[in-house]
């Protein structure tokens, strides 16, 4: 892909503890996270992170609890200072920023959505939504229109004068999103933004986010510990474990070719038929098959194709993109692709 | 010969001891021994005295007695007293003015202005007619038994002192909440202020200021009552939800914006709880302060004790209880209003 790189993280390390620099030495000499904790009583938060986040894309960072996701996202706006490494936003090294420049970055370049919403309990929904503009010195009157607009966009018209505690969790997080949008910043950081919501509302919110993203094309960094959510939202997926990146890339690619037992474990119980799309399992060819059963778009998921074939495994489909054939997909290879990788390797053994 | 002679012999300090053979005043132990008739110190291990200053003084007259310690402290204080007064007097003078001013205003304002005014204030801060009625009846009751002036004097002193406590206590609490080191150093002082018997700070204050000045009792009350407002401001700000603070940082608030737009508003319920306690403690202290000429109901209580006038003392005591209930209810109700208007998502 040829989009510009918005955020670039290079060789980022974070060690928590009283003397991180000494501990860094040990880490570089190959000490693992558990050894470091045992021998030096320091926590290795992040270990040699290299990630590029492209403008207009959703980069999802996924990992289990304690893998360092929150730590990583808080480095982007320097709520946490790194022990070593560099972070560039728009090509600028943010680690060189002084207080003033950092504040400008936080006010104008980045906004954040939190797992626990973190709304101001003593302010109305409207005032919360306009937080970024209020901080810049605007009065309620000046940001009212903008805030109302975004509240309506997330489906909260009419709730402007209520207080956060009067809203349900899902509604509060909508306010959280509206607040981030009202700041009008190109980058949105979302730390487990939907994890506190129940499954139905969560799906709603994911759809809302995808909807907004089609329209606004922000650079979104989204954190989750839920693989289904990650696969649904991600343009680029980064998988973290114990503070280092195990694998990153296009989500379909990771599901098809996991390179680590940890990830294989992770993806073993997802619904592959719903996650995988035609383009990631097709045979690339522009030659039309002998007896094509029909045409499918390259982004159709396997579930839909199975439904289309009525379970007939002898069929072969043409995979189309922009009106041209990019490959063929036989139902046999589709069925094979449904088997999780680790079961496949076990069967071979 | 005294029990601990050998100590000084061993240390070779005999000569130093011998320098001072003049009779020092008798210590309590010597006096008791002499009255029992045995001038010689006993050798029984059961009666071995602790090697205290007095016991060592018996063996060596050059060694200081414990009464020298208290006397030294007193002399030390007296010697710095004058310089201390030069600084403290002008610094604390405004307190006298405030107190005298408030007492004067309470006195010259006729009751038919003062009582309605207070009721209006109660209504404004509590929005509760029930409470207004209660306060009205209580004050009318006190006035009916001719305790109106005393009650107003007590209230005037409490208002001034509590106001000053808040004026200084809140900023100190904020400073404490921002620096762990400051908190570490301040907490022992607060603990001391709170546990030292109130009479004890009256003693040095009496030396420093003249008893006729109102700031004398003002300072005593403030020192005693400022503690809760400091503690609860500090606590309140430290307890503000970390997530909310993080959001404020993430959206680029300055420290100042964070303090005034997030921390103080969210700590307000705790700060108000501190103010409530401060007021109640001022009330407790204002009674003790009548020992050093604070006017008000305390004077009557004191008269009751001094002259054994049971009725006077009891009625004044009940008057104080009534004031306490009024002040407590009014501050608690306004506190509840603040709480209700900013409920957290947690509850
Ligand atoms: N301030 C800190 N001091 C010491 N250790 C810390 C600190 N913050 C985080 N850690 C450690 O760093 C590691 C990563 O924590 P982090 O909060 O980034 O995890 P996470 O992936 O966000 O987990 P979760 O899904 O539970 O939010 C953990 O082992 C944690 O104990
Ligand atoms: Mg986290």
What would your notes on this structure say?
The complex is a heterodimer of chains A (349) and B (347). Chain A has 349 residues and is an alpha/beta fold. Chain A has helices at 20-28, 33-40, 69-76, 99-109, 125-129, 131-135, 140-153, 169-182, 199-216, 227-233, 251-256, 261-267, 272-275, 278-281, 302-309, 331-337, 341-348; strands at residues 5-16, 43-54, 58-62, 84-89, 92-93, 110-113, 187-191, 219-224, 236-241, 244-249, 283-284, 295-297, 316-321, 324-330. In chain A, strand 13 and strand 14 form a beta hairpin. Chain B is mainly α. Chain B is 78% helix and 0% strand. Chain B has helices at residues 5-10, 14-18, 28-36, 53-59, 66-108, 111-126, 129-144, 148-178, 180-195, 198-208, 214-238, 242-250, 255-288, 297-306, 310-341. In chain B, helix 13 (255-288) runs antiparallel to helix 15. Chain B starts with a helix and ends in a 6-residue tail after the last helix.
Question: SSE layout and pairings?
Answer:
The complex is a heterodimer of chains A (349) and B (347).
Chain A lengths: L4 E12 L3 H9 L4 H8 L2 E12 L3 E5 L6 H8 L7 E6 L2 E2 L5 H11 E4 L11 H5 L1 H5 L4 H14 L15 H14 L4 E5 L7 H18 L2 E6 L2 H7 L2 E6 L2 E6 L1 H6 L4 H7 L4 H4 L2 H4 L1 E2 L10 E3 L4 H8 L6 E6 L2 E7 H7 L3 H8 L1
Parallel strand pairs in A: 3-8, 3-9, 6-7, 7-8, 12-13
Antiparallel strand pairs in A: 1-2, 1-4, 4-5, 9-10, 11-14, 13-14
Chain B lengths: L4 H6 L3 H5 L9 H9 L16 H7 L6 H43 L2 H16 L2 H16 L3 H31 L1 H16 L2 H11 L5 H25 L3 H9 L4 H34 L8 H10 L3 H32 L6
Helix pairs in contact in B: 5-8, 5-11, 6-7, 7-15, 8-9, 8-11, 8-13, 8-14, 9-11, 10-11, 11-13, 13-15, 14-15
């Amino acid at each position: 892909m040829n989009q510009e790189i918005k955020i670039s993280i290079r060789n980022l390390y974070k060690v928590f503890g009283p003397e991180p620099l000494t501990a860094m030495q040990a880490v570089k000499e190959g000490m693992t996270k558990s050894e470091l904790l045992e021998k030096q009583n320091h926590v290795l938060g992040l270990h040699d992170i290299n990630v590029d986040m492209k403008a207009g894309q959703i980069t999802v960072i996924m990992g289990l609890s304690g893998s360092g996701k929150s730590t990583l996202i808080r480095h982007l706006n320097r709520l946490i200072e790194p022990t070593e490494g560099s972070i560039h936003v728009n090509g600028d090294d943010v680690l060189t920023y002084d207080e003033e420049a950092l504040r400008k970055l936080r006010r104008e370049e980045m906004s954040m959505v939190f797992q626990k919403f973190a709304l101001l309990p003593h302010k109305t929904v409207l005032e919360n939504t306009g937080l970024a503009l209020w901080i810049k010195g605007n009065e309620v009157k000046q940001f009212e229109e903008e805030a109302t607009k975004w509240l309506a966009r997330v489906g909260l018209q009419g709730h402007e004068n209520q207080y956060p505690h009067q809203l349900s969790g899902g509604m509060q997080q909508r306010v959280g999103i509206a607040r981030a949008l009202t700041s009008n910043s190109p980058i949105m950081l979302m730390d487990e933004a939907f994890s506190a919501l129940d499954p139905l509302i969560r799906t709603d919110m994911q759809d809302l986010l995808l909807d907004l993203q089609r329209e606004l094309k922000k650079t979104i960094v989204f954190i989750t510990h839920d693989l289904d959510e990650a696969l649904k939202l991600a343009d680029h997926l980064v998988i973290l474990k114990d503070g280092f990146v195990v694998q990153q890339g296009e989500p379909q690619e990771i599901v098809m070719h996991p390179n680590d037992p940890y990830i294989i474990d992770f993806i073993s119980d997802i619904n592959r038929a719903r996650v995988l799309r035609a383009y990631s399992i097709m045979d690339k060819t522009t030659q039309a098959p002998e007896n094509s059963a029909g045409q499918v778009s390259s982004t159709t998921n396997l579930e839909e194709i199975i439904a289309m074939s009525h379970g007939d495994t002898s069929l072969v489909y043409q995979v189309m993109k922009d009106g041209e054939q990019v490959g063929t997909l036989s139902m046999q290879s589709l069925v094979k692709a449904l088997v999780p990788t680790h079961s496949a390797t076990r069967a071979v053994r | 010969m005294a029990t601990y002679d050998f100590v000084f012999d061993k240390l070779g300090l005999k000569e130093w001891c011998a320098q001072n053979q003049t009779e020092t005043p008798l210590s309590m132990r010597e006096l008791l021994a002499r009255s029992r008739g045995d001038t010689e110190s006993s050798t029984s291990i059961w009666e071995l005295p602790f090697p205290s200053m007095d016991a060592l003084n018996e063996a060596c007259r050059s060694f200081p007695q414990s009464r020298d310690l208290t006397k030294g402290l007193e002399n030390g204080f007296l010697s710095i007293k004058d310089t201390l007064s030069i600084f403290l007097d002008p610094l604390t003078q405004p307190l006298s003015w405030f107190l005298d001013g408030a007492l004067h205003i309470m006195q010259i304002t006729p009751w038919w202005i003062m009582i309605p005014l207070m009721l209006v204030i109660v209504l404004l801060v509590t929005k509760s007619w029930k409470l207004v009625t209660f306060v009205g009846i209580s004050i009318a009751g006190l006035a009916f038994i001719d305790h109106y002036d005393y009650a107003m004097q007590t209230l005037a002193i409490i208002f001034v002192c509590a106001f000053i406590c808040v004026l200084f206590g809140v900023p100190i609490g904020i400073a404490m909440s921002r620096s762990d080191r400051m908190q570490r150093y301040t907490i022992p002082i607060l603990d001391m202020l709170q546990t030292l018997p109130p009479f004890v700070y009256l003693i040095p204050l009496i030396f420093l200021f003249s008893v006729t000045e109102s700031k004398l009792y003002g300072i005593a009350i403030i020192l005693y009552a400022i503690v809760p407002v400091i503690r609860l401001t500090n606590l309140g700000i430290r307890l503000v939800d970390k997530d909310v603070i993080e959001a404020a940082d993430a959206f680029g608030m300055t420290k100042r914006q964070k303090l005034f737009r997030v921390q103080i508003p969210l700590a307000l319920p705790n700060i108000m709880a501190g103010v409530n306690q401060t007021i109640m403690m001022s009330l407790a202290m204002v009674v003790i302060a009548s020992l050093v000429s604070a006017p008000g109901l305390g004077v009557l209580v004191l008269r009751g004790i001094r002259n054994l006038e049971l009725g006077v003392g009891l009625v004044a005591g009940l008057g104080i209880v009534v004031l306490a209930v009024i002040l407590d209810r009014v501050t608690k109700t306004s506190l509840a209003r603040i709480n209700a208007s900013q409920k957290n998502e947690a509850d």
